[in-house]
Design brief:
Number of strands: 5
Distance between the termini: 119 Å
Mean pLDDT: 82
Order of helices and strands: EEHEEEH
Number of helices: 2
Shape: elongated
Largest sheet: 5 strands, antiparallel
Oligomer: single chain
Structural class: alpha+beta
Radius of gyration: 39 Å
Length: about 140
């Protein structure tokens, strides 16, 4: 009887690094390399390096020494977009603050008008009515 599994077959271990990246900065000759089998950690490191202004090239291991290029992350372009968004937000923020100041001023004015309207009326005769009968000679109740 023969065994279904050969004992001398080469084993195919899981690669130690399923993902790798290379980060390069403009004006810096030495690139940074990172390898990991954890996809979440790999993506986090790629985002962090891109946030510092690096051009990040990501690769995925296909096995047998083959690597597939994933989409690169252009860190300088991301920083430029963030800078432009911050510049565009400045006038909007100033406009928002001016609008808030107008709203606060309007609220103060309305509070003053409301305070005047809430005050009880002051009787003209000092609180003593002159008429004895008010409604069909029934008297003041």
């Amino acid at each position: 009887m023969t065994s279904r599994h050969r004992r001398n077959t080469p084993r195919h271990p899981i690669p130690a690094a399923a993902y790798r990246l290379t980060a390069t900065w403009p004006g810096r000759p030495q690139p940074t390399r990172f390898e990991s089998s954890d996809h979440r950690q790999f993506r986090r490191v790629a985002r962090e390096l891109a946030a510092t202004g690096a051009l990040v090239v990501r690769e995925e291991h296909l096995g047998r020494g083959l690597w597939r290029l994933l989409d690169p992350i252009d860190g300088p372009a991301l920083l430029q977009a963030q800078h432009e968004a911050a510049l565009a937000a400045r006038p909007a923020a100033a406009e928002r603050r001016a609008e808030e100041r107008r709203e606060e001023q309007r609220a103060v004015e309305l509070a003053a008008v409301e305070a005047v309207m809430v005050q009880p009326p002051i009787p003209r005769s000092g609180g003593r009515p002159k008429a004895r009968t008010v409604a069909r000679r029934r008297g003041i109740r």
